[in-house]
Design a protein that fits this description.
homodimer; alpha/beta; 2 domains; Arc Repressor Mutant, subunit A; Rossmann fold; two-stranded antiparallel sheet; 34% helix
Chain lengths: 273, 273
């Protein structure tokens, strides 16, 4: 094979690491691919790593030990998080988003793949140390954000349904209290084979008002003897102040709507200010 | 600012391009970021581009003209597509996936972010030239694949629902014929504001049996005066051979199940062989 120059390796190496976030690649893997010595690959990694830090592009981390190697984590800096969340708050405060019943139209935002990716990066960064085995969400609007969070953590996404479906096999069904105020009883179903006992679950959803759906997901995990290691949402409403669930990390807080303009009053959660 | 070396630029440039697939970045943007001349940045791009081609990592393309610049497209080679689809066929032919009623359990596969990403890359590659304005899918299982396709195309994802919900505002509701054989009438709803007249839609879903749901999405687009420029699915069943919709591109074909072992008989669509 023709000798591969450093300048050719760096782009390819970045591409391979970014394609598999949070997954450890051994140095040997790159040595073989590029026909280079470990010391050379190690220098390459340092170069990519330092340019990532310099331009706030996430981290290329070296992991020591027998199962060691190098991995990419898209951990955004506090400054970048603030910028992303401020931009998103502005977008959600655009006129025309208030719907009858005091709802906020967010479907275009939560299904925007770039926004879902950015949310996933911020949410995942807070749970790397909890090492979840999977991300759990409830259909439908939370799926894009939960999927991107799962991608950043390199774990599967598990989707709870409103109904069990024939093409999902045997399922566990629970009832839970949904909705703020009027306390509707809803049903949630999850395929029996989707979760194993003892696994660690990270629960992600797009929106929390009363917290009933999130608490439902926590209860569902009890049925599977799985441990919930975190609960994160994109938007939480300021009211009701007391939720059905505690310890939820929210990226944005929706205070309500401006009565004159109909615009949403929304801002990054105080933990990001 | 301290001078930035080429070896530092290449990783950062790759990261920035990969973060925004199919989006054109001007050379000026990189000149400013790295404090380098256009000719230098142009050489950098050539280096990344040639290493991407060499290792089958997609394309870094230079786009000429006034709105020109450079973009990343994750176009996989025919050899890579075959490898991905063969691996996926093997996974779906694992024992234990046949469910009562002759359904195939695919939820873990369609919600795997790595698989969804790979499917999105293959699907998007076939529709760049049709320049869709958005990707349309129907909840729930198709969402991960549709989201990743949308991400690769740099367009929004639009999700049709079984029911219109208060938090989506006014919606268009249609009835469509779902299910192979027993012809159930189902309802599909889409937020009025999600699509504008004249837009080009790419329809993506995870599974096609009779094609009723896909035809429903085509009918929905007629209500919005939008043009359907393509329809793609992950898996299509061999039976029924005649579908309610024509021209669907499928990645895999499910022939049925082995009566002895209960394993799925599934393979890449013949267009990929």
């Amino acid at each position: 094979m023709e000798k591969i120059k450093r300048s050719e390796r760096l782009g390819a190496m970045t591409r391979i690491l970014m394609d598999t976030p949070n997954r450890i690649h051994t140095l040997g893997e790159f040595c073989e691919l590029f026909g280079a010595a470990k010391s050379t690959i190690s220098e390459d990694i340092d170069l990519v790593s330092s340019s990532f830090s310099r331009f706030d592009l996430g981290r290329i981390e070296t992991v020591a030990g027998a199962a060691g190697g190098v991995r990419y984590r898209a951990i955004p800096s506090p400054a970048k998080i603030r910028r992303v969340l401020n931009d998103l708050s502005e977008k959600l405060a655009e006129p025309g988003r208030m719907l009858p019943g005091g709802f906020l139209y967010t479907s275009d935002v939560s299904a925007d793949s770039g926004i879902a990716q950015a949310m996933g990066e911020i949410l995942a960064a807070q749970y790397y140390d909890r090492q979840p085995h999977f991300v759990l969400t409830m259909e439908t609007k939370g799926i894009p954000i939960a999927l991107m969070t799962a991608r950043m953590l390199d774990v599967p996404l598990v989707i709870a349904r409103r109904d069990s479906r024939a093409y999902e096999g045997s399922a566990v069904k629970i009832n839970y209290i949904a909705g703020g105020g009027n306390d509707r009883i809803e049903t949630m179903a999850l395929a029996r084979r989707a979760v194993s006992p003892g696994q660690r679950a990270l629960i992600i959803d797009d929106f929390m008002k009363g917290g009933g759906t999130l608490q439902g997901m926590v209860d569902m995990m009890k049925e599977f003897l799985a441990e919930v290691v975190g609960v994160g949402v994109m938007i939480s409403t300021a009211e009701p102040a007391v939720k059905r669930i505690e310890g939820v990390k929210s990226l944005l807080t929706l205070e309500g709507f401006d009565k004159k303009t109909g615009r949403a009053i929304i801002h990054p959660d105080k933990s990001y200010l």
